[in-house]
Amino acid sequence: MQRDFLIDGNVMKVVVGLGNPGSRYEGTRHNVGFEIVDYLAAAPGVGPFRSRFQALVAEGQEGDEPYLLVKPETFMNLSGRSVRQLVDFYKLPIEHLLIICDDINLPLGKLRIRSKGSHGGQNGLRNIQEQLGTQEYARLRVGIGSPGEIDAADFVLSRFRPGERPVIDEAIRTAGDAALCWMRQGIEACMNRYNAAADASEKPKKTPRTEPPTPTSEMT
pTM of the prediction? Predict the structure, then answer.
């Protein structure tokens, strides 16, 4: 049974943070999307997470507009399964979907918001694109630093060093604010405000992404 994307007559928006499920991966670089969704979920009026659509889903309210906060319980490279189920069930317009994920091509703590685009080698975005059949969904990427000489798959599953943690904590708060801006004012306002802020401090370095494809049974 499908359900309309209206809740109590209001248009719903959906924020999906990407990561890997389970305590083994808590605090890893690849789980920044989960941390941002948890930050948003700590706001007053947000309900508890419940297991639905192969994900943990919480309902919230921003003004008169309802929204869902989503953490897929699949591994990163199967994130699209959960997103596709949710989009199909609610008949959700793609412009009401925001995906939040990590990015090894952005400096630590830097944000980049786009209304559409390629997956850029990020395996969660890759699977979402495959499942939805489109690149035209909003995404908010958070820089987790460059792996350098470290294998990319090992790097994204590592935890932030103590000196990096304050930077990423601030980025999580800023990304949460950016997600709220997207809900309230739309993607253009969100890009204008938060991309401009990132560019003012430091332009992202363009380095080739080296994250390898991963087996569907694994986490990256």
Answer: 0.86
